[in-house]
What does this fold into?
Amino acid sequence: MVLAEDLAKQQRSISVAEFFEKNKHLLGFDSPTRGIITTIKEAVDNALDACEEAEVLPDIFVGIKKVDAEVYRITVEDNGPGIVPENVPLVFGKLLYGSRFHQIRQSRGQQGIGISAAVLYAQLTTGIPTQVVSRTGAKARAHRFELMIKTETNEPEIISHEEIDWDRTHGTRIEIQFKSTLAAKKRLVDYLRLTAIVNPHARITADIDGEMTVFERVSGEVPPCPKPILPHPHGIEFGALKRIAAASTGTVEEFLIGSFSKVGKKTADEMIALANLKPTRKVNKLESDELKRLLDAMQAVKVPAPPAQQCLSPIGEDLICKGLEKEIQLDFIKARTRPSAVYGGHSFIIEAAIGYGGKVPPEGTAQLFRFANRVPLLYQQGACAITSCASQVNWKSYGLSQQGLPMGPVLVMVHVASTNVPFTSESKDAVASIPEIEREVVLVLQELGRELKTYLYRRDKKKQQDDRARAICSIIPEIAIKVSEIVERPLVDTSPIEGKIMRKVVAKKRTVDGKVCIDVNNYTAKEVTLVLYNLSRDAAEDAVPRPDFVDSMDGEYNKVWRRTLDAGEAWHIAYTGSGDGSVDLRGVEDGVKVVVDLDV
Amino acid sequence: MSREEMDALAKERLVGIARTWYDQMRDGIVPFIRLPTRTKRNIAYDDATEVWKYGERESTRAASTEKGAVHLLKMAYLIGFLKQQLVENRSSTLRELYYISEGWKKAKFTAQDESNLLIEDLEIITDVQREAFHLRPEEDGASLFGPLRIRENTRRGAKEMHCQDDVGEAGYPIPNNVDNLEFIDHDAKFVIAIETGGMYARLMENGFDEEYGAILVHLKGQPARSTRRVLRRLNDSLNLPVVVFTDGDPWSYRIYASVAYGSIKSAHMSDILATPQAQFIGVQPSDISDYNLPADHLTEQDINALKAELTDPRFATDYWRTQINLQLDMKVKSEQQAFASRGLDFVTKEYLPKRLSEMGII
It folds into this structure.
């Protein structure tokens, strides 16, 4: 067995740092272009999480500067609570070190590998240590570290540590230099924009190689920080049960009531009876097969859903709309937050929004924005459950064409908030297909689809009315001129048609030979009092009748007439001018007025 | 009808449309017009005239939408223009008309198809052909050759000529407006309409017209309106049988169909354009095997076209079903000039005389 002995000499344990050094793609460092985005994403996620915990409005600076041909310096600075000096080397210099791994609540980061992976990536590509400055409050001085990671042991290596003065009273700043490119600059800006959309309380300032962009906040309220909850009996696996049971000192009953959410005495007793255990048994003395029985019993007994309000922080319908509107110009926007739901003992809430028109590209498939716990998902759209749900919905019944995703100037946004977002991989790019989640996503998109359909219907109807108004007020008079000429009879009066068809208050502006004419006809059966606004570059000093009020600004004149018109009465205004500008009619309900600018 | 009477009728019918609109507008009605729906589904066989005409379906064009209003505006400008043209005794081509609309602002045509369609609409509404509006088609009519004496009313006065003795090798070119044509006398027994120029020249060279008393008419592929009208008139007023001689492929059968049964696009004029008595002389699919003619394979499109013809009501006769199914079995097609493989005289000495006597024409 010489061979086995030889082999044994080569066998040794691998540190996590070593492992990730060889498997960078698992953490989103598969290419230099992606490295920048992943680093910024991890640092910004941490910053936002920290600010929320400290209940401060996030003010985050992101800097990217080219230091030589291939090396970029990434800086991310926040106004969060800072990190106590003892922990700084661990947070940045040790993989799988973090505060949120053992907590059950919604947060952006979870495993504590993201930012330390970036530190690792930096030392691999440039060998330059990462700089961290952190200050925990006005009373403390700031600490500045230069850090690296010892890959063999996965321990931080402090290159230097000093106390310095820093103008921020609290916060953290990290500077990492690694080999990369700015090829994916657009995607990077997209990432920041998307982050700003789902974090409308954050201000993000970006300086990308000298180019400044500010994503301003639209909400002055810090969202309440989700509180950790106890694990739910339905969401626990054998290994975890065994571990927490071993660390517990109480009886089985005390353990069940004290270590899990939504388990009271009645539920605990039911589980214990089903598992055929004595309630007084010390839980740390249970045998493996007894624990297994207990686990089965915990799954079998009905337990209310975990307290979602406490551990989740959905964005909310109003803020989703505000967030989207500030970054993307839209004609229509509607958001929905679904009631909380559960999969495998994990709470989740689905939120979604649908936008239409405006600056959304009119051609091609819809833009799909995916988010998980307020973090944009940039890659692997095709592999994501959100995408497949959006394709499953029958958009044709909501008035959109469809090729998988809906087509046209449509924007679909879906946010999955959960204590445990089921990602397909560690790089957290795509949500896995969990039937409970998929059901909620489809439902919310269907709700929004119905809203969109109503909007499109109203818009089309409005368009039809405008189209009709233009035909009747502008083209029929031209037909009348031509037809009268052909039949050699006096010009036929088309106002009966207007009146019969429109039954509204009709204002028409027309410019002929330097004369601007505005005709207002009250074709309704009631007397109306109206105010006519005409904004143009014409001073209209010779206007008949004289305007009741003229207001001039920057060479533009706003002329206002007030008038009461009997049912069927017509009113005519004329002045010398070029006929640019606009006409508006107020004091009449939208449904009974038509304003046509025949000069357009 | 004299030229003056025709002009007056055309003008009256056109102005009539404008008068209807005038009255509609005066009465507070959004101007509109009704037209038969111009689709394949709205084509019906008319027993009395034995041609295919538009059916009962109608569509209304009203000025109640911007699109509809602009359509009527264009028609109004067009009517105004045509009226002027009639008053001034001028004429123009379809192409010229399209360009004239440049100055019509909102009523300007966006493509020639649009003005052509509007003209056809006016033909349908007024029941007057576009020649009566003094509109000339672009394309030349085809030509004819044979023992026929005609008188043509030209702009430079009436010209009389014999279509064998007074014309050259190219034959007599059929004018665009066939109404200006008068048949004086003839010595013919039948009319043979020929798809290709090569075969037309072959028959002429071989003296087929003289030997059998045939009027040769060159179809030039899908025949122009004037050519179809001449065939109809030769059949109608001179009582001459008409036979159609084409290639042996599905597209040529459609040429025959448009001569004999009328086309969808001009179904409103089938009774003056179609010659229901016209018979198909060849090339028949059975001829390809009977005479062992050189043949090409049917393409995918050929096969689809043949299958479409099997469901076309115009081809729903035993003769056509048998021939088309035979061709689908053989999977080949032949051109009419394939007869030359059996000698240059074969077609005039053997094939046509045999077929004509089978058909009871000679």
User: Anything to note?
Assistant: The mean pLDDT of chain B is 90.
